[in-house]
Amino acid sequence: MSKPISDHLESSESLEYGGPTDQNQGPEYTKSDASNYVIDSKLENRVIRKIDFMIIPFICITYLVTYIDKAMLGYAAVFGLKESLHLTGTEYSWLGSMFYFGYLAFEYPTTFAMQKLPISKWLSVNLFLWGAITMALAACGGFKSFLALRFLIGALESCSTPAYLLITATWYTVEEQPIRIGWWSTFLGVANSFGGLLAFAVGHIKGSLESWQYQFIFIGAITCAWAIFMAFTLAERPSTAPWLKEDEKQVAIRRLGPRHHGSNFNEIKKYQILEAVFDPKTWLFFLCGVATQVVNGAASNFGSLIIQGFGYSNLVTTLFQIPYGMIILVSNVSAMYLQRWLPGQKRCLVAVLYVCPALAGVVGIHTISRDHKVALLVCYWLTSTYTASFAMIMSLITANTGGSTKRSVVNGMFFISYCVGNIIGPFSFKSNEAPKYTSGIVAMLVAYCAEIFLLLAFATYAAMQNKIKDKILREAGLSLENQIHQSLEETPVDQTDMEDIYFRYTY
Description:
Blueprint: H1 5-14, H2 31-36, H3 41-54, H4 56-77, H5 81-84, H6 91-116, H7 119-136, H8 143-157, H9 160-171, H10 177-185, H11 187-202, H12 211-233, H13 246-254, H14 270-278, H15 280-309, H16 314-319, H17 321-341, H18 347-367, H19 373-382, H20 387-400, H21 404-427, H22 438-475, H23 481-486
Helix pairs in contact: 3-13, 4-9, 4-10, 4-11, 4-12, 4-15, 6-8, 6-21, 7-8, 7-9, 7-12, 10-17, 10-20, 11-17, 14-21, 15-20, 15-21, 15-22, 17-18, 17-20, 18-19, 18-20, 18-22
């Protein structure tokens, strides 16, 4: 799997800045100018502000439109989709899950494509096709055609969240990434609120088409327009950003350091693939992904039906998704700043804290009488706080995975778990159990409990690995301070978190 520590120690001492190591690394550096280069703090702050202004909004808006695309199925269900397509039995659940079968089938091909191709362009092309197919859903007149298009949309979406993570890792340091992931993940909340408002507005359209058809046409057109704009404006990396001056490009690249895990290395390394597969952290992330997405699969496809089951009309049901989205927004933002404020960035602890209200909410839905509509509605809103833990888990992956190929594999496996959870979620909701959906609510309850256990297990394992690395450094007569000097001397390296003895896990 990974190279022995002794090999790394020997090679790290003999590294020289002799020329470019990868065509995507930007300007060439020499050993002498690296050691003499000092980053001006005011200039660095200006560069960071520019990056925040020119990168994060693209991810936020893309996250918004793509999530609304997915959630639109749930809104369409309360506006006559099931009746128009003559859905029976588990057919609606299949429509929800088929999206993730497409995602699952194309996850690894698109992950490795993004290691070879410009990420921004690949994302834009997929997004445009996605929007076009979303509009085509309005023309479907039966279950089979709708199911086939849902598969294609899932295949195209398989690049989205992995691309967001890779873009974030390309532009930001490990310490900066959780806050930025928090920023764009809050748009899950905005998407729920805006999607509910959009569905409510479109629901009042009186025309030759059904309300659910107008919904798909409208959001699909917005998605296509945004994809075209993004293709021509989103920068691929600091060295090619037209909105950065030359001195700003130097700062944007150098501040990340040679060990920065967002560096682009095109070579696919077999030993990193093996390390990813046999790394226990990979499987803890995998299981966390399943647990969180069982809930997401339920909420995105059956959330509106759950609210309708409390006794509300279809139009009112869509409006009640707005507070749900606002709680997501507040939860994600507050969680990211809370973990930043706590000593040592206790990400796993913060994630667990935000799962607890969601756990209480689903217990309430399961136990409170149907006569108490408001109490049930509040419990449903509480279940949205779990999304903060998903954002935290994504930040844990980017912060704790080194090596370009390994990162691609771990991201791919995590989003396979993303698909598995979203496939399981809708099928746990059985149509013959409406409106209580007892099996689905119990599945959400189990998923929350499993997530809490897995987060605590990851924190324990990461702490143990850090202690092992500390011992190796002491025995080699080195310390973490050596990394600061060495970072000015080395060429950019593509090492995994396990083979880099200076790498410390964040938990």
